Amino acid sequence: MTEHFTWGIVLDKKAIGEADGEYSIFTWDVGKVIARATSSRKTLSRLAGHLEPGTLAMIRIVRKNERGRFRMAEALSENKTKNPTVIKVFSLADSLIPLEQPDINIFAFLKNLVLNETQSEALACTSLLKLVGFDPKTAKCGVCGSEAIACFAVQDIMFLCAICQNKNFVKR
Ligand SMILES: [Zn+2]
């Protein structure tokens, strides 16, 4: 069994079935992990308040082996933000950050958002994109290659120019 007792920043959560919760957490030790808390162990009700998106918490996660699924064993929140901008940026972070790649800079960036909340959404998104390897300054449209970037398409994980962005909207 593998166990990690580590700082974690809760990026997102979703309900699984009627009683379980699945949490996406960026940890200091392991990078992003998906950890499940099940109500059958009575852990979910005890832990849920410490695992809202926007929370910096000390967590203990365990799994049977390297490829197994993490289970949430303990969580104790240290700081929390309910700032909707931060929650939005965290949701974007969740869709961009790959699993289990520890990164001190990403951790520091996310922690700073929990503690300070001072950045604008545009600034925070730009910093995040840079940290995960998409620099808007050197970016090109993922479809046509134009350097006149208009947006970042989260679903496709690519930048788009205004023309391709419009085409994309029409397509969907
Ligand atoms: Zn384009």
Structure report:
- The chain has a 5-stranded mixed β-barrel.
- The protein has 172 residues and is of the alpha+beta class.
- The chain has helices at residues 43-47, 84-96, 104-116, 121-131, 162-171; strands at residues 2-16, 20-27, 31-37, 55-63, 70-80, 149-153, 158-161.
- The chain is 30% helix and 34% strand.
- It is built from 5 helices and 7 strands.
- Strand 1 and strand 2 form a beta hairpin.
- Helix 2 (84-96) packs parallel to helix 4 and helix 3 (104-116) runs antiparallel to helix 4 (121-131).
- The chain has 2 domains: 2-131, Nucleic acid-binding proteins (OB fold (Dihydrolipoamide Acetyltransferase, E2P)); 136-171, no CATH class.
- The model has no long low-confidence stretch (mean pLDDT 89).
- The longest helix has 13 residues, at 84-96.
- It binds zinc ion.
- Zinc ion (ZN) is lined by residues 141, 143-144, 146, 160-161, 163-164.
- Zinc ion is lined by residues 141, 143-144, 146, 160-161, 163-164.
